[in-house]
Amino acid sequence: MANDKPDTLARSVRPPRTLAERMQDFDRRWIFLAMGLAIVIPLLFPLNLPFKPSPMVKALYNTVDALEEGDVVYLSVDLDPASTPELEPFFRAVVLHLKRKNVKIAIGSTWYAAPPLIERWVRDFVEPQQGVPGEDGYQGKPDRPYEKNTDYAWLGFREGKEAVINRLGSDLQGNFSGRANDGTPLASIPWLKDKKRLVDFDLVILISAGSPGAKEFVQQVQTRYAIPMVASVTSVMTTDLTPYYQAKQLLGLAGGMLASAEYEQLVGKPGLGAKAADVLSVGHLMVILAILFGNFIYFTSRPGGIRWMRRLRRRPGRAR
After folding, report:
1. Is the same domain home to 116 and 36?
2. Domain total for the chain?
3. HSE (CB half, 13 Å, CA atoms) of 78?
4. How do residues 216-241 score in pLDDT, each as one tens digit?
5. Are residues 68 and 120 in the same domain?
6. pTM (predicted TM-score)
7. Range of the domain at 39
């Protein structure tokens, strides 16, 4: 027993762990926590990080801004609940932009999942006043409440994909059976009764989350009738639609959540898009830091790593 004591004591006295050894045991849940905070904090406390609108978003804004009082636009909202975080901020901003210019709005859809969302957005953003100068950071002209069938019309949903889009180019009123979604005859709406085809509208605005959507509108009707169009799409669709913008078939394009934030900035009312832009910026920063941190751990643990990192692994008292 007496002879075993020194061996036991030697085993119990361990040299202090190096930084590299401690890093190897780092609990990755701390990174998950940091990423969660990077998402939640900017939503609760907006950072208002600066960003510059892209040329495509500026072109879209300028196209809408060129509309005059009394003009009529067709707003096609083709999306589902999964795409609302990216596209709802744009809908809210572009509706405010149209309302403060006193532009009439006809709304339609080719997606069966869209009507409940559209009807809620109409109640929340189209009918009430949105833009009150000085309220919620708004900088711009005031808008006014819009009345159903007087200032806007919800035409409803039609199934048929490309066939429906094609018919909108030649017989819009027939496509909706000559009635708005509430049953009002289109012929009894003074500003809409002469709008027989999409080409009769001053501008077509497309809010699209997939197919059928902006791409099919360009392919089916824009090329044939030379209809002025702009579009807001999800991030993954941006690369597919960019050639149409470059070819001037789309006069403006907003792709994804950041583009919606850029449009909000141009309109003068930061909202959900601006908050989401803060989340994206901080979240991307956290991803970059996590990558750098992981590489730091890797190089400090390599026997042949960078010299200044390798020194961190040397135990106290070891010859240099």
Report:
1. no
2. 2
3. 27
4. 999 999 989 999 999 999 989 999 99
5. yes
6. 0.79
7. 19-44+277-313
